[in-house]
Amino acid sequence: MIRTGTEYRESIRDGREVFVNGDRVADVTSHPAFRSMVEIRTRMQDMAHAPDTRDLMTVTRNGEAQVLLNALPFAQADWWAKRRATDAVLDMAGGIVTRIGDETVGEMWSLHDCAAALNDIDPRFAPNIIAHVDRAVSADLFHVSGNAGPATDGTEMALRVVRETDAGVVVRGAKYETAAAYANQAFIKPTLTNWGDAEQSSRAIGFVCDMATPGLKFLCRESFATRSPAEDYPLASRLDEADTLLIFDDVLVPWENVLFYRHTRAAMQVRATLHRYSAFAFVQRNLRLADMLIGVALLATRRSGLNRQQPVQEKLSQLALYRETINAHLTAAITLAERSPAGLMMPNQSLLYAGRMQAVSQLPAMIHLTRELCGAQLALMPDAAAFRAPDTARWLDRCYAGDDWTAKDRRRLMAFARDLLNSDYAGHRLTFQLFAQGPPFAQLAAVYRNFDWEGPLALVKDCAGLSESISERDSLSAGDSTVSKWFATVAPQGVAAH
Ligand SMILES: Cc1cc2nc3c(=O)[nH]c(=O)nc-3n(C[C@H](O)[C@H](O)[C@H](O)COP(=O)(O)OP(=O)(O)OC[C@H]3O[C@@H](n4cnc5c(N)ncnc54)[C@H](O)[C@@H]3O)c2cc1C
């Protein structure tokens, strides 16, 4: 089933207890803090039905049409198609939105990979995993993710099971979940350290939570969308993704929604592979962000004529370098895609995690470089109302019009740049990029786990003439393992012969 935008909107008008600034929200689809993001998800649903975008957004599997961005990836071609479809969604949104479902649903594909191992640990929940992996596709749900919480181990609000009943487990505590207030379901699981040391910890629980479940309370942070005039804050007013503190006030999770429970080994297994797929969609957002930085820097320096100076061109090249490094990682991750243990097609893991770290760690410097290239106008430009009011507009027109630029365009560019680089929304966006897929140390740990250390080790062992005793293994395979693997398994016919 592929839902229409209208069906999605109706699905979230379920009486959920959402609060902003302490006030209860009557209808998330029309409240100014959420309506713009709900509209984007609505249009995303409708893109799967519209004749001009249907082929781009859907795939047929076993005779059934599925939303391409929900569908499990089996082939390299699926990743090219997903990349193109995500670009189409970001084009439609006119900016960057991350928690709109396509990124977070990848966690369900990781679960698919874990199903056999989790079955070995505790066979009770394997059928639930398979059912929910299928359901995320067949029911076309807006799926989000909850790992981190505000509370540390031992405090009352660390999410944990407080009792078991015939119907399921009752959980209490809190989690952060961006977009939860207008989503359908979430995959809730512990953070890396949040289940305690006990082998059978009550915190080592993973489950699918229906956002309409009684007892859930959605406490959203103050919205950037409601306090920003759209003309002055063109990004914040449309693209603020509401971060939510989701309170579980003794919420019943039916047994059929429990994916693992009381097994720290299962929790660790899930955590270690969680972003195996979703990192791709996340890094693709960084590519879009890089394009926005380049566009702003180029227009600002073209307007002033500074782009003709070589030192300025060198700064623009640094932005291009950043962009192309992300592009290269994404492209290579597809080109050298690898099979998961359960038979899905994963983006090349080492290249993807290296690309994620590169994109996230360099972003603050790239934002600052763009800010520098825009110059002080970024901070000094008067607001849109001043450009409209007759008493002030005539002065502003004289100040800001020139060459091929109207005063209006110049103000619009600087308002856009400010919301991308300088506003409180811009700062929030940067923090999101830094943390949304785990803090930087955890991202570096993913690089460590997925890089194949054997090639460099063998290289230096051979070049330096070291004895066998320095290696834990009898033989090491020299060379770049990703490239060797490609030659061994998927190289087009004839390539290997040259
Ligand atoms: C805008 C935004 C949206 C978010 N949305 C979601 C969401 O939808 N779902 C969700 O689950 N979470 C979400 N998060 C939370 C995010 O997952 C966490 O912020 C992240 O996991 C880091 O946890 P923390 O903030 O508690 O950092 P902490 O664990 O408190 O760490 C803070 C810092 O301490 C240092 N540090 C801590 N431990 C170590 C260590 N072992 N080694 C080295 N350095 C260390 C690091 O510098 C680290 O960045 C969101 C966060 C933000 C900012």
From TrEMBL:
Name the source's superkingdom. Bacteria
Domain HpaB/PvcC/4-BUDH N-terminal per the UniProt entry, residue ranges:
4-259
Q: Which residues form the HpaB/PvcC/4-BUDH C-terminal domain?
A: 267-464
Write down a Pfam family by its short name. Answer: HpaB_N
The record's InterPro entries line, in alphabetical order, gives: Acyl-CoA_Oxase/DH_mid-dom_sf, AcylCo_DH-like_C, AcylCoA_DH/oxidase_NM_dom_sf, HpaB/PvcC/4-BUDH, HpaB/PvcC/4-BUDH_C, HpaB/PvcC/4-BUDH_N
**Keywords on this record?**
FAD, Flavoprotein, Oxidoreductase
Q: What is the species listed in this Swiss-Prot or TrEMBL entry?
A: Gemmobacter nanjingensis
Name of this chain's protein: Pyoverdin chromophore biosynthetic protein PvcC
